[in-house]
Amino acid sequence: MELKSLLLDLDGTLVDTAPDMVGALNRVLQRHNQPHTDYEKAHKLVSNGGKALIEFGFAEALSEFDADALLHEFLDDYKNHVCDQSKLYDGMSDVLEWCEANSIVWGVITNKPLELAKGVLQGLGLFERCQILLGGDSLPVKKPDPVPMLHACMVLNLAPSQCLYVGDHERDIEAGNAAGMDTAAALWGYIDSSLSPEDWGAGALLCSPAGLAKLVQEMHSAHS
After folding, report:
1. What's the whole-model pTM score?
2. Nearest 5 degrees, angle CA 180-CA 182-CA 186?
3. Segment 99-153, tens digit of pLDDT
4. Both 70 and 157 in a single domain?
């Protein structure tokens, strides 16, 4: 069926949000007299959210603190710096522009809280261009449940088979596949070297946004 929509995960797929998320973590650590975390290790955890970052950053010292309070502190800090250094991955702007020029609607389905996801897109000037944005708290369930994907299809008035979903985490591929969408794994994202994306069941493994651009164009032209 003809490709009508490109749906994307946010962190580690559309936008490199790690500088701001790890920055918020380091400010929380500093306020509690803990050493800054290692950026290269921490940024691989960004797709797993604030809780995973707090657990990684505080490590053994976490038992001395209220983990829930630290998470709230992290989210409050991050909200104030949600798009200081975050940026589109190189090549993603071309992908979005090509979709818009060829009547392929694009949107974001993320597990990030909606308010924060909206802040990122607004900071990058993308919110008004995005046809649908679903956060992790937009519906009663989130990825890997396929409901957000199916809800997006309902809003866009499209069949799942007309959609390609791209993400950098196994839950992204699981949700897209379960909904009946074509799926692709964004290997440029926050994927730890211990993980095996080739085992996720994605329809395509993409090394760069340029590869995504090629895939979208091929899927579009196959039915034009």
Report:
1. 0.96
2. 130
3. 999 999 999 999 999 999 999 999 999 999 999 999 999 999 999 999 999 999 9
4. no
